[in-house]
Design brief:
Order of helices and strands: EEHEHHEEEEEEHHEEEHEEH
CATH superfamily of the largest domain: Cell division protein FtsQ/DivIB
Distance between the termini: 145 Å
CATH topology of the largest domain: Rossmann fold
Structural class: alpha/beta
Strand content: 25-35%
CATH class of the largest domain: Alpha Beta
Shape: elongated
Length: about 280
C-alpha cells in the first residue's frame, strides 16, 4: 500500500504490526545443543565412575579388617568390647558404621564413651572411656555413681561394696524434682571428691553421706557411726576446721555423740554424758 506521500506502509493485522521473521541461526543452535549433550554426558560418566569406584572400595578384599585395636581398658576385657562391637575379621572397612558401633559398645554400663576410627587400609581403633565408680546410692536398690554424678549400674553379685553410700535421695524425688535431685547428687559427689584429697578426716573415714533437702548434708563415720553435720556447701572450710582437731578427738570417738560443723568458725563436739560419767 502506498500512502499519499509515496512511502510504503507496513501491513497491520488488528492492532499489531506484522514483522518479517528473521532466519534461524542453525549453526548457533547446533553448538548450543552440542554443549548440552557434552555436559550431560560428563555428568553421567562422572556418576558412573563414582558408583564404580564405590563398588570397588566396598567389595575389595584389600580393605577387609585385619586388626582391631582397643585402647584404655582397665576393668573390661577386649573380648567384651569386640563382642559388643560386632566387628568381624574381613569386614570391609568402608562398610562399617562407626557411630553405630560406638553406640553398641556404650550399651555396656561400664563404658562412658567409645570412639571408633578407621586406620587405612585394614585396621579399626576403638578408644574406650570407662566409668569410675565413686559411691553407691540407695534408691530402694543399690546403684553405682561415677565421678561425674551419673547413676550407671545396679549392683550385682561380686561388685565391690567398699564405697560411701549416698542416702536421702529416693527414686520418687528424682522423678518429681529431677533438676534439684541432680544438683544435690552432684554436690554429694563433689563432697566425696574433697574428702578423697584429705589426710586426716578423709573418705576412708566415711561410710555414708545423707542428703536432706531442708537440713543439708550429714556424714556418718565408719568408726562409731558418728554423725557429722555439714549443712549445705561450700564444704571445704568446714572440713578443714575438723581436720585441725581430728587427731585429738579421734581417740575419744567412743564418747562422742555428734559433730556439728555448720557453725561459723567452730567445731561443736557433742559428748555422750552417760558414757563420760561411767568412765569418770
Amino acid at each position: 500500500m502506498i500512502d499519499q506521500k509515496g512511502q510504503k506502509r507496513r501491513r497491520l493485522k488488528g492492532n499489531r504490526l506484522i514483522k518479517g521473521k528473521a532466519p534461524r541461526d542453525w549453526k548457533r543452535i547446533f553448538h548450543r545443543g552440542l554443549r548440552i549433550v557434552l555436559v550431560c554426558g560428563s555428568v553421567v560418566l562422572g556418576a558412573g565412575g563414582t558408583v564404580l569406584a564405590a563398588r570397588v572400595l566396598f567389595e575389595s578384599d584389600y580393605f577387609g579388617v585385619e586388626k582391631v585395636s582397643i585402647m584404655n581398658l582397665q576393668r573390661l576385657s577386649s573380648e567384651e568390647i569386640m563382642s559388643a562391637s560386632d566387628i568381624r575379621g574381613g569386614d570391609n572397612i568402608f562398610s562399617l558404621d562407626l557411630e553405630l558401633i560406638g553406640r553398641k559398645i556404650e550399651e555396656n554400663p561400664w563404658v562412658s564413651r567409645a570412639d571408633v576410627e578407621r586406620i587405612f587400609p585394614r585396621e579399626v581403633v576403638v578408644k574406650v572411656t570407662e566409668r569410675e565408680e565413686r559411691a553407691i546410692i540407695d534408691l530402694g536398690y543399690l546403684y553405682y555413681v561415677d565421678k561425674n554424678g551419673e547413676i550407671f549400674k545396679g549392683l550385682t553379685a561380686g561388685d565391690r561394696l567398699d564405697y560411701p553410700v549416698i542416702t536421702g535421695l529416693n527414686r520418687q524425688f528424682f522423678l518429681e524434682q529431677p533438676e534439684q535431685a541432680r544438683e544435690l547428687l552432684l554436690q554429694a559427689v563433689a563432697l566425696l571428691a574433697d574428702l578423697a584429697g584429705r589426710d586426716q578426716f578423709n573418705i576412708d573415714e566415711v561410710s555414708e553421706v545423707n542428703v536432706d533437702v531442708k537440713d543439708g548434708f550429714e556424714l556418718t563415720t565408719c568408726r562409731g557411726g558418728i554423725p557429722v553435720h555439714l549443712g549445705f556447701s561450700p564444704f571445704a572450710a568446714k572440713l578443714a576446721r575438723l581436720e585441725k582437731i581430728y587427731g585429738e578427738i579421734r581417740p575419744r570417738f567412743g564418747m562422742i555423740r555428734a559433730i556439728d560443723l555448720n557453725v561459723v568458725d567452730r567445731v561443736i563436739v557433742r559428748m555422750d554424758r552417760h558414757i563420760a560419767l561411767n568412765q569418770g
